[in-house]
Write a structure and sequence with these properties.
Elements lengths: L4 E8 L3 E3 L6 H4 L9 H6 L1 E7 H10 L9 E5 L11 E3 L3 H10 L4 E6 L1 H9 L5 E7 L7 E2 L10 E9 L2 E8 L1
Length: 173
């Protein structure tokens, strides 16, 4: 039995995960409920995967690195080695993740990065999609789904409301 990769992400009603300049202020200003399902998802994982831009955003905007109790991989073309929080990976994200999925462990959270997300969707690497829709039409930005994706059939597992957020939880069939 292989480990599952989950996507837990917020998206505007018109399909954007961030504005062009990586601005997420619209998301922070949305009235939620509790932690909007975050801790439940977080307890189910033992590993995170993210791109370098996402990692840099987290380091810049949060006082403390939030995933210190997990194994964290950051995909980068420029940085190598590791620091107290993360291991930098300079190989193909899909192949690396397939190797991770074959190892023992809990779920793997694909934290972010539009480039990684696109590669994962194109190669159907994600097993669970937990998408939280926000009450915004941004008009433009970084899209959740880019063009020319394969058809992926999903099964709706659950829907939940957290204040102004609506969570859609799917598993790949």
């Amino acid at each position: 039995m292989s480990r599952e990769v989950i996507l837990f992400i917020a998206v505007s009603l018109d399909g954007f995960i961030a504005k062009e300049d990586d601005d997420l202020q619209w998301l922070m200003e949305t009235e939620g409920e509790g932690d909007n399902g975050y801790s439940e998802m977080y307890q189910s994982i033992d590993t995170t995967i993210m791109g370098k831009r996402t990692y840099d955003w987290v380091r810049e905007h949060l006082e403390i690195f939030p995933y210190t109790d997990k194994k964290n991989y950051v995909f980068s073309t420029t940085q190598t080695g590791s620091n107290e929080y993360v291991e930098f990976v300079n190989e193909d994200v899909v192949e690396f993740t397939k190797k991770l999925k074959a190892q023992q462990g809990s779920k793997i959270w694909m934290v972010g990065g539009g480039v990684i997300l696109d590669a994962f969707i194109k190669e159907n690497v994600i097993d669970e999609y937990i998408i939280t829709v926000t009450p915004h039409i941004l008009g433009s930005g970084i899209p959740l789904f880019k063009e020319r994706n394969p058809q992926i059939n999903l099964q709706l597992i659950n829907t939940r409301r957290f204040g102004q957020f609506v969570e859609l939880h799917y598993k790949v069939k």
